[in-house]
UniProtKB/TrEMBL annotation:
Keyword Transmembrane appears in the UniProt entry: yes
Name of the protein in question: Type II secretion system protein
Membrane-spanning parts: 12-31
Domain of life: Bacteria
Annotated keywords: Membrane, Transmembrane, Transmembrane helix
Amino acid sequence: MKRNQGFTLVELVIVIVILGILAVTAAPKFLNFGTDAKVSTLNAVKGSLTSAGAMVYGKAVLASKQASATATLTNPAIDIVYGYPAATVVAVQAAVDIETAEWDISLETGPLVAIRAKNKAYVAAGAADFATTACQVTYAPAASATAKPVITVSIGGC
């Protein structure tokens, strides 16, 4: 006669408790989707700023305005600094085509534009005022005719 043996109830409960402990310790690492979304959004904004800057620079070269410290392109009107978009609300919004329904855009002190995502992922065009904001993209305009804008992504506080 064969004896069928299975797992006892105590063994099953112990396995379930161990799996529960593993799930509790590992789940937060895999379920941090909010931070991943903010970081991806900031990287997309950086890519958009880079691409838009290259297109504006190409248009400035065609208009022979790439060596000028300040100029304006037409259709659409974009203020430029050495061929790249200036750090103004209008220039950045026109170059990147930022939707105001998704982004809060405001002028800060100096030549600094703050672009804040309405989901609290922060983006800034400029430099010093947003150095302490940890979840941001900073856009500093070209400093000379041979320099490109400096675009930096900071994800520490996302």
